[in-house]
């Protein structure tokens, strides 16, 4: 009996050492990139944008190419933490590229593009999109970088580095990455390096289009963090407008961009952390949310990942979209209904002119 107790005690001590070692690893490896990083630009175009000419811009959260329509995600109440396999990621990425090429927008914003990750089966999606859209100028900004997360224990999501990709069929003169506030408690280990990129594209009249690409926090329950992220974004938008620039913000806001998506899509009214109404009343002067006609056609931009997608049954909302300054004329906005074939998001496209 004494021998059994000694073995049991030894196993308990070993387990405690392993757990303490892992916790130490997570804390010691924690880091955030500094604010205001100048980003390297891949320049494949030399032209400037023209005033009073129609252009298309697409925003597409690709969900690190791990989410076919039958996928469910553990943090949303579903089953899986990683993509099924490498073949699935490559198939989804090919579908995402085919969609982007079919839309053929002048500007394109992608979010949740993994550079390296266990969750995406180590497929370099940044390189894949850059190679597939090689006729665009582009810039990459890191938006997520986690240590190996041993959660859930049965199938850990692991380690990942991910970010934002901005593409333009025009010259890019410069781009800067700005950090966003995140949780300061243990949740910070699940929401590392949130940021937005601000990319400058010249206009023929000598002015500049400031194109902001962002993916805001989805699962934080901290309202102060959500508000702090919006405050920083709004302050930057205001300053860029006052500097005389055209400003377009696109991406995944993780807010209900319609403000009444449950009513529009006939879904439950209790909000998740990522479906709070977007506070349009807090926008700086001279800015608005470009939702023209979206409620009437009722095409969602995101689905909940608690179960495989079932049209007409799954929870859906509209969290992707665009904010524009009043020197940008919006001609049309449309969500392209891909039935969530390659991502848990559908791409959204806006047609606009620079005044």
Question: What order do the helices and strands come in, and which of them pair?
Answer:
Elements: H1 2-29, E1 37-38, E2 41-42, E3 55-61, H2 86-103, E4 107-117, H3 125-132, E5 137-149, E6 158-168, E7 174-179, E8 195-202, E9 208-215, H4 223-242, E10 246-252, H5 261-265, E11 287-289, H6 294-297, E12 302-303, E13 316-317, E14 320-325, E15 328-335, E16 348-354
Parallel strand pairs: 3-4, 9-10
Antiparallel strand pairs: 1-7, 2-5, 3-16, 4-6, 5-6, 7-8, 8-9, 10-14, 11-14, 12-13, 15-16
Your description of this structure?
The chain has about 350 residues and is an alpha+beta fold. It is about 25% helix and about 30% strand. It contains 6 helices and 16 strands. The chain has helices at about 1-30, 85-105, 125-130, 225-240, 260-265, 295; strands at about 35-40, 40, 55-60, 105-115, 135-150, 160-170, 175-180, 195-200, 210-215, 245-250, 285-290, 300-305, 315, 320-325, 330-335, 350-355. The longest helix has 28 residues, at about 1-30. It is globular, with a radius of gyration of 21 Å. About 40% of the residues are buried.
Number of H/I helices: 6
**Major beta sheet, specifics?**
7 strands, mixed
In terms of DSSP E residues, the strand content is 25-35%
Mean pLDDT reading: 90
Number of strands: 16
Report how far the terminal alpha carbons are from each other: 85 Å
Give unreliable regions as ranges: none
Which structural category fits the helices and strands? Answer: alpha+beta
Percent range of helical residues: 10-25%
Radius of gyration: 21 Å
| SSE string, helices as H and strands as E | HEEEHEHEEEEEHEHEHEEEEE
């Amino acid at each position: 009996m004494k021998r059994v107790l000694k073995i049991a005690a030894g196993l308990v001590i070993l387990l405690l050492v392993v757990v303490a070692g892992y916790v130490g690893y997570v804390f010691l490896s924690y880091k955030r990139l500094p604010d205001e990083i100048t980003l390297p630009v891949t320049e494949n175009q030399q032209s400037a944008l023209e005033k009073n000419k129609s252009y298309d811009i697409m925003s597409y959260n690709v969900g690190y190419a791990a989410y076919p329509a039958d996928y469910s995600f553990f943090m949303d109440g579903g089953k899986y933490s990683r993509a099924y396999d490498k073949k699935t990621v490559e198939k989804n990425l090919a579908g995402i590229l085919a969609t982007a090429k079919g839309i053929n927008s002048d500007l394109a914003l992608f979010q949740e593009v993994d550079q390296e990750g266990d969750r995406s089966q180590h497929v370099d999606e940044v390189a894949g999109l850059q190679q597939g859209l090689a006729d665009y100028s582009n810039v990459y900004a890191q938006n997520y970088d986690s240590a190996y997360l041993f959660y859930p224990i049965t199938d850990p999501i692991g380690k990942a580095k991910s970010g934002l990709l901005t593409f333009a069929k025009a010259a890019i003169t410069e781009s800067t990455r700005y950090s966003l506030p995140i949780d300061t408690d243990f949740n910070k280990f699940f929401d590392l390096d949130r940021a937005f990129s601000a990319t400058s594209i010249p206009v023929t009249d000598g002015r500049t289009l400031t194109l902001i690409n962002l993916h805001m926090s989805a699962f934080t329950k901290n309202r102060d963090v959500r508000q702090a992220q919006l405050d920083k974004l709004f302050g930057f938008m205001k300053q860029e407008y006052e500097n005389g620039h055209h400003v377009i913000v696109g991406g995944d806001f993780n807010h209900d961009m319609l403000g009444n998506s449950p009513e529009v899509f006939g879904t439950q009214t209790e909000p998740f952390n990522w479906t709070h109404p977007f506070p349009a009343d807090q926008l700086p002067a001279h800015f608005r949310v470009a939702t023209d006609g979206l409620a009437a056609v009722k095409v969602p931009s995101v689905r909940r990942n608690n179960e495989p997608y079932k049209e007409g049954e799954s929870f859906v909302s509209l969290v992707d979209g665009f904010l524009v300054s009043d020197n940008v004329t919006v001609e049309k906005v449309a969500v392209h209904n891909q039935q969530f074939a390659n991502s848990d998001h559908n791409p959204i496209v806006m047609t606009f002119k620079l005044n």
